[in-house]
Amino acid sequence: MKTLPIRIKATGIYAPGEPISNLELKQLAGIEFDHEKTEAKLGIARRHIAHLRGLDETTADFATKAAQHAIQNAGIEAKELGLVIVGTDTPEYITPATSILVQGRLQEGETWASTFDVAASCASFTIALDNAVRIMATDESIKYAVVIGVYNMPAFIRPDDSFGLSIFADGAGAVVLERTPLTETSAYLAGQLLTDGTQHDFIGIYSGGSRNAITHEKLLSNEYGLQSLKPLPGDRNVRLWPMVALRLSEKAGLATGDVDHFLFTQINKSVIEKVMTELGQPMNKTTCVMQDYGYTGSGCIPMALHRAIETGNVKRGDKLMLIASGAGLAVGSNLLIY
């Protein structure tokens, strides 16, 4: 497997407003849920939700601020970016792409930069990262890129959906990528994608596109926003993530034990614990952030990465594996040397 001379130069993060505890969420949203179970099983204790704090901020705002944080940490100018990718399934608009708005805010006008969105549910960031690395590897004119994972699912949750409001949250994480010399230790080792489109009708936002326009009748019948049409298989990620980790490791010519740190979709801490046990790895080789940020979908992997680097759990030269899965079914994974 040929390594690609692209590395993560810096990371950034953004979550709107002050954190909201499980008990405060019940008061602010006027809902009831088992907060003890939410915290004990899923690991979710706090989250950030813009509209519940009275903030006029949405997806493009979160994405821009996370990107600005990463750019500042990278010590570069926004005008130096040759590629801006946003990974999300909660875009600012159906069209234009959220990445176009973000580019305009970052670079303030016309530049020789490419932008596009990746909408592969909660796997959007990992798939966007894989695409960004491969584009940079084949276009030497791009020295820097920013890849953003962002989530604003609370904007699509109906007011009576206590489960959705207790789980989903707002947030964004971003990475600045740079081209590195072939002699540099940091590099991208491999990516592995998996898809099963026959599972498209489990959970999603099914109204507002070309198939189901938003109508008065749909609003009255609650057929809008986030809809759960079928129960998701309870063991899906416990089955998928070890399988993906093994295939990705083999693809790079490594054993899973060679990986220094693992990051997974941050929706259920108990599932991450089971997966780490299945992989034969200790929990200190992973980072969880759902206790502080709730479930931030496409934003959760880069947000956890930022925390892992910030706390010293991930250091330069470490082999890092990212695995994300989401409705659809879409799975994206990356193996790199930080």
How would you characterize the overall build of this protein?
With 338 residues, the chain is of the alpha/beta class. The chain has one domain (1-338): Thiolase/Chalcone synthase (Peroxisomal Thiolase, Chain A, domain 1, 3-Layer(aba) Sandwich). Helices cover 33% and strands 23% of the residues. Helix 3 packs across helix 4 and helix 8 packs across helix 9. The longest helix is centred in the N-terminal third of the chain and has 16 residues, at 59-74. It is globular and about 60 Å long.
Trace the largest sheet across and list its strands: 1-7-6-4-5
User: How many structural domains are formed by the residues?
Assistant: 1
CATH H-level superfamily: Thiolase/Chalcone synthase
Number of strands: 13
**Rg to the nearest angstrom?**
19 Å
Q: According to CATH, what is the topology?
A: Peroxisomal Thiolase, Chain A, domain 1
Secondary-structure topology with pairs:
Layout: E1 6-14, E2 20-21, H1 22-29, H2 35-42, E3 46-47, H3 59-74, E4 81-87, H4 98-107, E5 114-118, H5 124-138, E6 144-152, H6 162-167, E7 170-179, E8 187-195, E9 203-205, H7 216-220, E10 226-228, H8 236-251, E11 261-264, H9 269-279, H10 290-293, H11 300-310, E12 319-326, E13 330-337
Parallel strand pairs: 4-5, 4-6, 11-12
Antiparallel strand pairs: 1-7, 2-3, 6-7, 8-13, 9-10, 12-13
Search tags:
five-stranded mixed beta sheet; single chain; four-stranded mixed beta sheet; alpha/beta; 338 residues; 13 strands; 11 helices; Peroxisomal Thiolase, Chain A, domain 1
